[in-house]
Specification:
This protein is of the alpha+beta class. The protein is 46% helix and 24% strand. Helix 14 packs antiparallel against helix 16.
Amino acid sequence: MPLSVIKPVTEALSKAIGVPVSLVASAPSPVRRAMMAATEQHGVGAVAVQVNHHRYLACRYDTARESVVVLGPYRKTDDPPQEIATLDADAEGRAIAALHVASVGFRSALENERNRLNLASQLEVVSRSVLAVTSELELNTVLRRIVDLAAELAGARYAALGIPGSDGELVSFITAGVTAEEEERIGERPHGHGILGLLLREQQTIRLPDLTLHPESVGFPPNHPPMRTFLGVPIVARGTVLGNLYLTEKRYRSEFTDDDARLVELLARHAAVAIENARLYAALDEQQVRLRTIIDKLPEAILVIEPGAEETITMANSQASALVGWPITPPISVDHFLAQNPRFDSQGGRVDRSSIPMVRSLQAGETISRHELRLLRPSGEMITILVNSTPVHDQTGAVSAAVVVFQDITQIKDAEQLKDDFLSLVSHELRTPLTTIQGGAAMLLRDWDALDDESRHAFLSDIASESRRLASLIENMVQLSNIRAGRHPLATEPVLVRPLVQHTIHAESRLVTDREFRMALEPNLMLDADPEWVDQVLRNLIHNAVKYTPDGLPIEVEARRQDGWVEMAVRDYGPGIEETDLPYVFERFHRSSGARRSSKPGMGLGLYLARVVVEAHGGRIWIESPDDGGLRVAFLLPGIDEDELD
């Protein structure tokens, strides 16, 4: 008990009685020993003691060892004279009464002090418990801490937290005080029947000295530890039961007390907040994972940039890494990011930092839409990107971030360029034969009688030749369109090579009568192919050979077996092809350097169409430059053995 409580009382008693009053701890050693011995023997109440011919009164106000008030020394009127206070019998009686009253007051003050300290201790325990629960955001960890703290607060040997599902039955049951081996021996966890079900229904604290005697009790399963004392407290938030705390087997007492119930109820109220926070955090985390997954699956590259002492990229999806050509691992500085991929404008000029859309959005709050840039990858590849960038403002209107969305439009730009080239090529290639046909036809109509037979034949030959060229050009474009649109799927069947080649050569020789066609075909070759498409490939290759081979030189068509395939080839003795053109001869609209120099007409579709058809059959096509000059274009198609056909 604080001295601030004791001292005023003892001083007042001393002044009123005229005899010193103090606690036994401040008395001389002989007096203290005598007082302690007397009061321990006498118990609570005043007792008279003499030490060295001096009289004392002692009164114990508590069971603690030195909780004794001492009055003295004094002498009675019939004692030998001494220089100490004298009390007659009446005064001594009043002193005993006053000492008794003081002791009662001290005992009450001490009890109040103990209650205060006990309450402070409980508040400290609860405060620590609340802090421990609310500082955690992971739901399972929160639930585990709630169970452990409830057991500690209530002094329970066993504790459990049951989480009810939508149907009212327990879907989760977290325990404390039971080992994993004991849980395994118990087997199936409770569903919420018996006393547990009662708590679910009542939704209010239940305290029982012996739960086995309650009418709702359904007993315990085999291997379950015996339990009698019970304290159940619901965890409620906004009228909804989030869970129930079950505490059993009160330690050191026969049952749980009201104080235990109040402490656990206080914990339960804070536990409800902690559980809701953890669930909200889990939901938020799940939403972030979903959002991240969606962003990662978007075809566009996305970056989030935030300002600061150093502007930083704080988020990048996987497409961003793929587009720039190196793995982006946020957070990284914007300067580092930009240094990896220099930017250029459409004219090839280097774009400075302040003109880059993401920097403009972050620093100036600009919204940039459909801005084209050329970006250099670390591999040296240059790509064209389309950038959209917008600032993100906080509640004060300041720019707190910038979101950049960009995509690789290199193929689109290439396609646009290809389209422009195609239109230019088509207009030229169609206009040239049409001009010849129209001019020749007009001349024949107008001057038929004035022309001799040789001139008329020459005009008619030009018209026929340009018509064939026009038909071939249109045929290749139509076939290419059919393939890309899927309107002419392969219809493979067994095809004899010799009749197919003979048919193609016969058709071509009718158009070019001044060429010699030779065949070198192994006997009984058979393809598993679409005959119409193979005929188209052969005619394209023969047409190319005729176009670029000088008059009088032969065109050879070869075919032979090769490991289950049939290798077919068209060989000419023309000028061949330059080495630099080889990688591109099968590309769409590509014309070799020699073809462009020779001014021979063509759109660069014949070899491309041949490659598409051969690859559609699962084969391959290639070009060889024979040592004796010319060109050999060969391709492999699936073959059929005679045995296999039988």
